[in-house]
Design brief:
The complex is a heterodimer. Chain A has a single domain, classed as pyruvate-formate lyase- activating enzyme. Chain A has 14 helices and 18 strands. Helices cover 36% and strands 23% of the residues of chain A. Chain A has helices spanning 15-23, 36-39, 46-50, 97-100, 112-125, 144-147, 149-158, 175-178, 195-201, 208-220, 238-252, 270-279, 284-287, 301-316, and strands at residues 4-8, 28-32, 55-58, 65-67, 78-82, 85-86, 91-92, 106-109, 130-133, 163-169, 186-191, 202-203, 226-232, 260-265, 267-269, 290-293, 296-299, 324-326. The longest helix of chain A has 16 residues, at 301-316. By secondary structure, chain B is α/β, with parallel strands linked by helices. Chain B has 2 domains: 2-199, Nucleoside phosphorylase domain (Rossmann fold, 3-Layer(aba) Sandwich); 204-264, no CATH class. Helix content of chain B is 39%, strand content 21%. Chain B has helices at residues 9-19, 47-60, 135-142, 170-179, 181-201, 208-214, 219-235, 244-247, 252-265, and strands spanning 2-6, 22-25, 31-34, 38-42, 68-77, 85-93, 99-100, 112-117, 130-132, 151-159. Chain B has a 5-stranded mixed β-barrel with strand order 5-9-8-6-10. The radius of gyration of chain B is 24 Å and the shape is elongated. The chains are: A alpha/beta, B alpha/beta. Chains A and B meet through strand 2, helix 3, helix 9 and helix 13 of A and strand 7, helix 5 and helix 7 of B. The complex binds iron/sulfur cluster. Residues 88, 90-92, 95, 97, 138-139, 170 of chain A line the site of iron/sulfur cluster.
């Protein structure tokens, strides 16, 4: 899977590093002082690297738990995110990571225990429960067989009474969850776009059916999964496509055993949009009816209202109002 | 265009012949050979000469931003067998301690190793790495104008602990390059594919001249026009933008308005 693994010298002897490297005996190992030397140089091409990303094993120093942007959340008063990983196995054309990073290499921070210390501290500092979103700079579960992220963090969150965890994913890697008792304070949220959009925009992402299979398994095992329609995408015929997607999802899932359903329109900060549309100048998604407001590119306001309004109305047929969370910030 | 930077004429000669490069040009600070698709410069020994020759190619090249760059030469290594061809995955300037990491993009399939650039030939091989005298001069300069995936350093091992550097001659250096020509050609092809993929994205918008010949566009209007034509290409790839309705617009602002209105009304179909 990886031809090259870059390893920060400080984590070369870390047991997690050793374990991961042992899985890829053919990969060439390259040592570096700080992951930024490999990941951050300006003159890199995300699209070329996406064809063969390397793995970078590193330690995250500081800023491990950050407040989410305003509007991001599912009803909690205190919202934070943490990223054990940067970048993603999948290749969604709308993904903001393509604009945020120059490199498509995967950075995996192996010092999970440092994240745990920070999460505990943040969780204990307030009276109200704190939400921790883990799928902000990556897909929470896609690399689970290598990272063992969920397998490690679920027992930790089981012992955090004041903390909620959201795992956000488009993967079907749910074995670590099925292998244990469900947790009341953990939401596994699956993101969807209609089948037609999945085909044209969500490269390497498992099909809608496969993701639904994974969700059904989780529900049957007692977990309360979440559903995310974020970003909402506009194209000709979107009404029929979203209607069909919603029917399919809620035909298979038990709406009473869902944690939440959230939705948010397609949005990108101007700088990210510029970088991504330069990588994919032929992509109709970026040539469509977009407008810039306060440094953000999004659908023209009339279209955004139409699209969001339509989806909310449709979702009301399927899910109780209390579970619906329209997001004002795109994930 | 692929730009090749080499230190010595003897090592360069097999490649000059293999690629059919002609036109020995000695007017610049280094000797240049070229054809339609490749330029090869003989920089002389050392990182400063390599950096200067690379910068000179950038300044004089037709499209250095859309070019690939390759430094080829011989190098020492503690343990790799003489004659092995290796790409650098890390280049360290021994003098400053600074390192760079050439990304190993899809299609580059040869063995890779650390490469340390030294000021004098290394005879003790303290680290299990390649030792050369040019890469740390070449690499950061080449990366100034193009993306790092298109900048690579390829070395053929000429000496190791069992075969000391004192035994390396211009003739043996040339023979080592001859033996790796097949691999070097493969590397050039792979780099050219990557280069083509990047430059295909940077192509200028369709039919720009047709518009600018039709009426006067200010610089800022020309930028708007380019953006609108790029949108056109993405949304209506099969349909040329120039049409009678556009021809009827006599001012640049009207042309831009018409294009924008038209594009905003086009139904978006993804994929
Ligand atoms: S799954 Fe999420 S993180 Fe991964 S590429 Fe798609 S949008 Fe980005």
């Amino acid at each position: 899977m990886f031809t090259h693994i870059y390893i920060e010298t400080s984590v070369a002897d870390h047991p997690r590093t050793q374990e991961i490297c042992a899985r890829f005996p053919q990969a060439t190992r390259v040592s570096c002082e700080r992951y930024g030397e490999v990941f951050n140089p300006k003159s890199q091409d995300f699209r070329l690297q996406k064809a063969r990303p390397a793995l970078i094993l590193a330690s995250k120093h500081g800023n491990r738990v950050l407040e989410t942007p305003a509007g991001y959340g599912i009803g909690g008063a205190r919202n934070f995110y943490f990223s054990h990983m940067l970048n993603c196995l999948y290749d969604c054309r709308y993904c903001f990571l393509q604009g945020m990073y120059r490199s498509a290499n995967y950075v995996l921070f192996v010092n999970y225990e440092s994240f745990e210390e920070d999460i505990s501290r943040v969780a204990q500092t307030g009276n109200q429960p704190a939400w921790f979103f883990s799928g902000y700079d990556c897909d929470s579960l896609a690399l689970e067989p290598i990272s063992g992220f969920a397998a490690h963090f679920l027992p930790f969150f089981a012992a955090q009474p004041n903390a909620w965890l959201e795992l956000r994913t488009k993967s079907t890697q749910v074995r670590a969850l099925l292998n244990r008792e469900p947790l009341a304070n953990t939401v596994v949220a699956f993101s969807f776009t209609p089948r037609e959009m999945h085909r044209s925009l969500e490269h390497r992402v498992p099909t809608v059916e496969k993701r639904l299979d994974a969700m059904v398994q989780l529900q049957q095992a007692g977990w309360l999964p979440g559903v995310r329609f974020d970003p909402l995408i506009y194209q000709q015929g979107y009404q029929a496509q979203y209607r069909e997607l919603f029917s399919e999802i809620f035909r298979r899932l038990d709406a009473d055993r869902l944690h939440s359903v959230s939705l948010g329109p397609f949005r990108l900060p101007r700088g990210y949009f510029k970088a991504i549309s330069r990588l994919y100048p032929d992509e109709p998604l970026f040539a469509g009816p977009l407008a810039e407001t306060a440094g953000m590119l999004s659908y023209r306001q009339d279209l955004e209202h139409e699209l969001t309004g339509f989806c909310i109305e449709e979702l009301r047929y399927h899910v109780p109002e209390a579970l619906l969370f329209p997001c004002t910030v795109a994930a | 265009m692929i730009n090749i930077v080499m230190a010595f004429p003897g090592e360069a000669r097999p490649l000059i012949d293999c690629l059919g490069l002609a036109g020995r040009d000695t007017r610049g600070p280094a000797t240049l050979y070229r054809n339609e698709t490749h330029r090869l410069v003989i920089a002389g020994a050392g990182k400063i000469r390599a950096a200067a020759a690379t910068a000179w190619l950038q300044e004089t090249g037709p499209d250095s931003r859309h070019a690939a760059w390759l430094n080829i030469g011989i190098a020492g290594h503690a343990s790799r067998p003489v004659g092995s061809g290796v790409l650098a995955h890390r280049i360290t300037d021994h003098g400053t301690g600074k390192s760079w990491y050439p990304p190993q993009a899809h299609g580059l399939t040869m063995a890779t190793d650390n490469l340390i650039t030294v000021d004098k030939p290394e005879t003790g091989y303290p680290e299990n790495a390649l030792y050369d005298m040019e890469a740390a001069g070449f690499y950061p300069v080449a990366c100034r104008t193009t993306t790092a995936e298109l900048v690579q350093c390829y070395k053929v091992v000429s000496d190791n602990r069992d075969n000391p550097v004192a035994g390396v001659t211009p003739k043996s250096g040339a023979a080592l390059i001859v033996d790796r020509l097949a691999e070097i050609t493969k590397l050039l092809t792979a780099l050219d594919k990557l280069r083509a993929a990047v430059s295909a994205r940077r192509g200028s918008a369709n039919n720009l001249a047709q518009f600018t010949n039709h009426c006067h566009f200010t610089v800022s209007q020309q930028h708007q026009l380019e953006k609108l034509l790029a949108r056109w290409d993405a949304l209506l790839p099969e349909q040329p933008p120039w049409c009678d309705e556009l021809q009827a617009q006599q001012q640049a602002s009207h042309v831009l308005h018409w294009l924008e209105q038209h594009l905003n009304s086009v139904p978006v179909r993804l994929g």
